[in-house]
Amino acid sequence: MPELTANGITIHYDDHGPADADPILLIMGYGAQMTLWPMELVEALVGHGFRVIRHDNRDIGLSHKFDGVKAPGIVRHSLMRRIGLRPKVPYTLADMADDSAGVLEGLGIDRAHVVGGSMGGMIAQHVAARHPDKVRSLTSVFSTTGNPKLPPAKREAMDVLIKRPASFDEDVLVEHGIKVSRTIGSPGFPTPEDRLRERTRALVRRSVYPQGPVRQMAAIIADGERTKMLGQITAPTLVLHGEDDPLIPVAHGHATAAAIPGARIETIPGWGHDVPLELVERLAGAIARHARAA
User: Fold this and answer.
1) Contact present, 50 and 288 (Cβ < 8 Å)
2) Which CATH fold topology does 3-152+211-293 show?
3) 227 CB neighbour count, 10 Å cutoff
């Protein structure tokens, strides 16, 4: 897999479609490797006439790891934020946005359509705010403004996301990954068991790095609310959100769309916090129409 230096660190990426086609940059979420953007979605977007780039965020997959750098724990960090204190974090979502912008620079791409899912949506929002000249359009997928007054995740969804597996034996990791996917996934579009198991095992064999998500979560908590920042975004924006998302409820999508001038939102019943194959064509079509309109 190719790699490049962006924002001073090594980033792994892949690149699909004609080099001269309009580029789409896909940014994945918390603790998630870039391959959780399914190839079926990538191929569908290429079929719509786009060049599609995925990349591993820092501290996950095959990109740079910040080994040995400590981050405050979730509980301590959250409590400190509530009383107005800002603990030191290894890096911020703005830093991660600069990584993504650096990927575009490294590939010689002046402007791209930027699509981010979950934490990747938060990063994409920062890219659009910090690097407006690089963003032709923004698509924020099952993401949020960070407003603490919005409905929280379901308890079981947050618990399974932050709980560590019992061991790092491959089979244990696969079962843990399957449980995570089942808990936060789409109730209306459940992934078949054989596909889910195959995909999860491929992720485990590609990379296991439990320290990375701890630092990524610290970056999310430290970022706080972005509503004011979102009001400064000028890129044409589409918000996509599942009506049955247990991790980031659909109210977060509506708040995101309301915060960004001119943004519009599409919600889908039965969709949770994943990218089921049954929705690939619909999601690719929505992203492609939005990009062409921009």
Assistant:
1) yes
2) Rossmann fold (3.40.50)
3) 15
